[in-house]
Amino acid sequence: MERLHPETNTFHMPFGEMTITLEDVHCLTRLKIEGLPVEFQVDEDMEDGMTYVSRLLGVTQQHAYVELHQIWGSSLRLSWLHENWNNDTISYDPHTLDFPARAYMIYVIGSVLFCDKSGARVT
């Protein structure tokens, strides 16, 4: 990606301009684009963070605690996602297929679309 031009909401790429529409977001993420927004409160409590990470990524609560404790509970390191989900030993059975898919989406969103200044974590 070359550069986002906020005035026109377009990305200027080597091959030309590109605009991402709401329909594109829906097709890529399967998030609803019509109706009421989905809202929820996430407490700053470490236990809630461990529960979310454990439930959404299929890791143990202890594994989630170690990761969240290393960065004070507010984000995940991109290297942690890469280490845990980029290998050939992962079992891709139908019951756990959502876990690596979610980890991949978090990795892409955190490293490409909404990266922070450090470029090393996603909140």
Question: Can you walk me through this structure?
Answer:
- The chain is an alpha+beta fold and 123 residues long.
- The protein is built from five helices and five strands; from the N terminus they run βββαααβααβ.
- The protein has helices at residues 22-29, 46-57, 61-70, 78-85, 98-113; strands at residues 3-5, 10-13, 16-18, 76-77, 121-122.
- A hairpin with a 4-residue loop joins strand 1 (3-5) and strand 2.
- The longest helix is centred in the last third of the chain and has 16 residues, at 98-113.
- It is globular and about 45 Å long.
- The mean pLDDT is 76.
Question: Which stretches are low in confidence, meaning pLDDT under 50 for 5 or more residues running?
Answer: none
- The overall average pLDDT, rounded, is 76
- Reading the helices and strands in chain order gives EEEHHHEHHE
Distance linking N and C termini: 22 Å
In percent terms, what proportion of residues is strand?
A: 5-15%
Nearest-angstrom radius of gyration?
A: 17 Å
Q: How many β-strand stretches?
A: 5
Order of strands in the sheet with most strands: 1-2-3
Give the % helix. Answer: 40-55%
Number of helices: 5
Q: What general outline do the C-alpha atoms trace?
A: globular
Let me know the largest β-sheet. Answer: 3 strands, antiparallel
Main structural class: alpha+beta
Which helices and strands, and how do they pair?
Elements: E1 3-5, E2 10-13, E3 16-18, H1 22-29, H2 46-57, H3 61-70, E4 76-77, H4 78-85, H5 98-113, E5 121-122
Antiparallel strand pairs: 1-2, 2-3, 4-5
Helix pairs in contact: 2-3, 4-5
